[in-house]
Amino acid sequence: MTYAKEKEVAIAAATAAAKLCEQVRADIPQAIEKKDKSPVTVADFGAQAIICQALAAAFPDDPVVGEEDAKELRKPEMAETLTKVTHYVQALSPDATPEDVTRWIDHGNGQVSSRYWTLDPIDGTKGFLRQDQYAVALALVENGEVKVGVLACPAMPLDGGQTGALYVAVRGEGATMVPLSGGEPQRLQVVMADDVANFRFVESVEAAHGDQSKQNAIAQAVGITTESFRVDSQAKYGIVASGKAALYLRLPSPKYPDYRENIWDHAAGAIVVEEAGGRVSDMYGQPLNFAEGSKMMNNRGIVVSNGTIHDQVIAALAEN
Ligand SMILES: Nc1ncnc2c1ncn2[C@@H]1O[C@H](COP(=O)(O)OS(=O)(=O)O)[C@@H](OP(=O)(O)O)[C@H]1O
Ligand SMILES: [Mg+2]
Ligand SMILES: [Mg+2]
Ligand SMILES: [Mg+2]
Description:
With 320 residues, this protein is an alpha+beta fold. Helices cover 32% and strands 21% of the residues. The chain has a 7-stranded mixed beta sheet, with helices on both faces. Strands 11-10-12-14-13 form a 5-stranded mixed beta sheet, with helices on both faces. Strands 1-2 form a two-stranded antiparallel ribbon. The radius of gyration is 19 Å and the shape is globular. One magnesium ion is lined by residues 44, 67, 120, 122-123, 125. Its EC number is 3.1.3.7. Its cofactor is Mg(2+). This is 3'(2'),5'-bisphosphate nucleotidase.
């Protein structure tokens, strides 16, 4: 088994971070506004602290490229928020001080290099605030290729009535889903072409994060006639990997034509789908570039599929 230690550490860290997030969610979190006007919560900071602490201890030489940083949190007017974050972190790491917490968060300020981790402590913060889907997303990238991906989706409903999924993939070794509450890992397989009931497509809840009218037109062009399934965060990748949808489309929003996708919004999800037999590319069929920087400057839009319809989707995009 390759990357055994990386997989073990990533699973333990993402599972712990998911626990922290669920604790915050039960307490009804408040949104804090970031400089770019997007929301962040004490759970985003706490989850980044917990995961970075674990990665720094196990792999001290690996940079971590995370979404959040502690710059604002260090300001005196944020002391109360930092106290709250520290309180949630202490439930998992009792000796943690506020200084530890900000230091661990800023361990996530690393740069893309030949080997690095990328972390989205909460992907779908808006979904998290709405008590909808969200994901803790962690991936290891080597020489531009995602090697390990772990996606914790604490609000994901499972067959059989439980809630909470952990999706795990290692390059060349397949993808599995294990309930966050524990149990046997189940092998993931994307939907087959003849599984009509699951031949659906997923897209973001937030209309401004895509182009919903074009997404619908492309889905129809490849024979998907049912309405989209709208889900927050990289949970969408988990749904495609589990064979519960054939396609996830994320086309550039007409409102933000210059938007570029972040590596942490896709790395973990992409390997989970690929290892379940699916395909991931940008809207021109180009591979996602995880080798350059935190934003994928040369990619536009995201297409995630079960594989069988991928070329058809790219062809439909070229025509529309
Ligand atoms: N304009 C635009 N276009 C595309 N994507 C954008 C845009 N603005 C933000 N973001 C990123 O969207 C991430 C949330 O993913 P989703 O859209 O799938 O979920 S959600 O519907 O917003 O909950 C969200 O990730 P988090 O910040 O981690 O929640 C953002 O990185
Ligand atoms: Mg995100
Ligand atoms: Mg995030
Ligand atoms: Mg964010």
